[in-house]
Amino acid sequence: MTTFSDTNQDSQRDAMATLSRIALIAVAIAVLAGCGDSVTGTFSGKSFHAKFGWKPEDFFTDPQVIALCKAIEANDLAETDRLVASGVDVNATGEGNMTPLMWAFPDSHLPRFQRLLDHGADPNVVVTTNLNAPGAISVGDSVMHLCARTHFPGYFEAALRAGGDPNLKDGKGNTVLHAIIKTGVPDASNRIALAIDSGGEIDAYGAGGDTPLLTAISWFGQFDIALLLLERGADPTVYQKDQLPNAIHLVLLEER
Fold it and tell me: Is residue 19 one of the residues assigned to a domain?
């Protein structure tokens, strides 16, 4: 007698087998992000703060927090330490929910970013405006989301270690797992594994009602990522929210 459990297991094995075949002949996607106007990329000869006209006085009123932001921007770790030790709030929020950690994020200076995290900065603060950086930051983003999308080495791992929430949703409704998959970062497999190990919900719905598995298949056919998600326990029988396809249907469509 065939049970529902047997059918479900057979479906999962079939999906994994199909993905394995496709993964052998498919080259996973070109990088989709890291362009010049992204806070997660870099600029030649100009800092992100200068390009977007970020001045601490435009976001904060506390002179000590302003001084901290200036020390951060100057990569002055000693002054950063001194100010925090003197009582400056490393989690102070300003206009649009700007924080010192957000101030430290751009331009791939990991030591200053890590130092803020070491002092207890929260990577999960969600911004309420685009922080005057349209196209780079969106309402609902947090440092954790930016770390998921960035090509800066070490940032994602640092934010997770400091309590970054892999299930935090951005303004569009995507979790960190969705953000990694949609950005196409070079070390996506490693980041996905770390996010899952840190409690990331593998079958969480994101924008458009897709799970990470559905996103990986439909977003430029990232079958290596889809296979990883299946190996980590993603359910291929979960349907796209309010729509017809599940992962098995999408794989069959891709094979046509």
Answer: no
